[in-house]
Amino acid sequence: MPKVCYNNHMTWQEFxxxxxxxxxxxxxxxxxxxxxxxxxxxxxxxxxKSLKVKDMYCLTVKKVGEExxxxxxxxxxxxxKNILLVEDMLETGRSLKVAEDYLLNKGANVKTVCFYVxxxxxxxxxxxxxxxxxxxxxxxE
Length: 141
Fold this sequence. Notes:
By secondary structure, this protein is of the alpha/beta class. It has helices at 12-25, 41-50, 94-105; strands at 6-9, 32-37, 55-64, 67-70, 82-86, 89-90, 109-118, 127-132, 135-137. It is globular.
């Protein structure tokens, strides 16, 4: 697997422009936004504002050995709810897939979104800006 390089520092202005572009691509009306801890938290909050979605939750997914596991239980009833699951970027996509499966098992209708996807990623989200070889460093990092 190639080494991931974080050498492109993004400004807040650049991020806001990317956020606006990504928001316009999302042709889905979520009832709830769920951000994957940690990388998806800031994007989830800003997308919730941009998309005018008030309900937001966080989901922790951790690597345990070679597997990813949901480490935090959400008690909310997600049955038949439209959920937008947010991550900042995908390297392999495994954490996003585990989080998506968790929400689907709770009866939710799930769409996934992130800003950037590495070409090596095993999955692609429903909505994203670009496929990249080098991931940027976001302004909050």
